[in-house]
Amino acid sequence: MKNIIIASTSTIHGSGYLDYILDDLTVLFKETEEILFVPYARPSGISHDEYTKTVTNAFAKINKKVKGIHTYEDPIEAIKKAKAIFIGGGNTFVLTNQLYKNNLIGALQTAIKNGIPYLGTSAGSNICGLTIKTTNDMPIVYPPSFNALGFVPFNINPHYLDPDKGSKHMGETRETRIKEFHNFNNQPVIGLREGSWLEVKNDSIILKGHLTARIFEYNKTPYEVNPETELDHLK
Amino acid sequence: MKNIIIASTSTIHGSGYLDYILDDLTVLFKETEEILFVPYARPSGISHDEYTKTVTNAFAKINKKVKGIHTYEDPIEAIKKAKAIFIGGGNTFVLTNQLYKNNLIGALQTAIKNGIPYLGTSAGSNICGLTIKTTNDMPIVYPPSFNALGFVPFNINPHYLDPDKGSKHMGETRETRIKEFHNFNNQPVIGLREGSWLEVKNDSIILKGHLTARIFEYNKTPYEVNPETELDHLK
């Protein structure tokens, strides 16, 4: 009964927060007027209230109300009662840590299994994979585990970046980092470029947006897939 | 009795491995002919043997022999008997995990306190700070702790990168990431650009190389310091 959008980013260059994907969010959230927002990832360290304000303004454009999970006394109950859930971007370690701290992993998995529509962007997409081991974020807090929600049977690399051939910087490219990941892990990784998302409906997983995505399978040469490709065979 | 070089990178664009810093390494390692190399960070996933070969070739230029710690039956003994230690770059999580697994944290701290000369580059420099929470690396393995060796009383951000103002990528800049770090941690962070290093002698910590470094102190505006600046007051 899964009904999920896993987006690389909340915002594409030159447009407003969630603007590029609002049409699809109207469809995803068509059965509800209120969305439960999880602001735990705190981009740039902003407060839960500030972050919820940004999200409230964005969803007002498609006539949806937003309530921050931090305003509930019991966050587990909030998840159980939610008609729709959005987990936004920021720092994946901070987000994961707070989900474990509030004991929300199981509650989220149950909600999504029951067909509650879910939107993730950036860090909120990272946690849809098997683990957070392919995040780009800085490990500013130590979470009790790197295991994530496992809504899809592979790992996500959001904000995927192609190597900059003109660069003189000696830090690893994204592709090198994912190659290193496969020295210690064997699940596939999907490099989702900004503006791309995965539409998950039951067992179907389709690449959406205008761009190709880069697939990294264990012991295989990485390859590109086109929009509208069905990815349910990756595991 | 500390005698340490903490370098941002092993290699600067357009030159060979360690070439830019060999003169200073001749001085650092002047009392010994053999260096114990710790290849645990495995850049691009290369083997301990392959990595040790690269390092052996580099140090041959200044007539030093290199022995990989992985060739010893007892790595703790290897550290105890070492006359000089080099921990190279790669993945900071993989390196940290292996140091904990082999129970080497205490042995390294004792060796450095006793004045054994130490060189760290990239991941091998990250671990010289209080924690690895300001690494740029992908968390491809889950170490038992993010606590590091604490040779200096602050955190290191190697391969420090200035914001690219022309970029259309929406991922966080390095400065934003370190700002997020300071929402959860209060120690200073030194952003070391490629080609810069810290020379630590007893309690003195001096910035070396031709570039400025960027200092991030808790609740302060970040600022630049010039080469030859004494940084022993940062903590």
Please characterize this protein's 3D structure.
- With 235 residues, chain A is α/β, with parallel strands linked by helices.
- Chain A has one domain (3-225): Rossmann fold, CATH 3.40.50.880.
- Chain A has seven helices and eleven strands.
- Chain A has a seven-stranded mixed β-sheet. A four-stranded mixed β-sheet of chain A has the order 6-7-10-11, with no helix packed on it.
- In chain A, strand 10 and strand 11 form a beta hairpin.
- The radius of gyration of chain A is 17 Å and the shape is globular.
- The model of chain A has no long low-confidence stretch (mean pLDDT 96).
- The A-B interface holds A 9, 11-14, 42-45, 90-91, 93-94, 132-142, 145-146, 159, 161, 168-172, 176-185, 194 and B 9, 11-14, 42-45, 90-91, 93-94, 132-142, 145-146, 159, 161, 168-172, 176-185, 194.
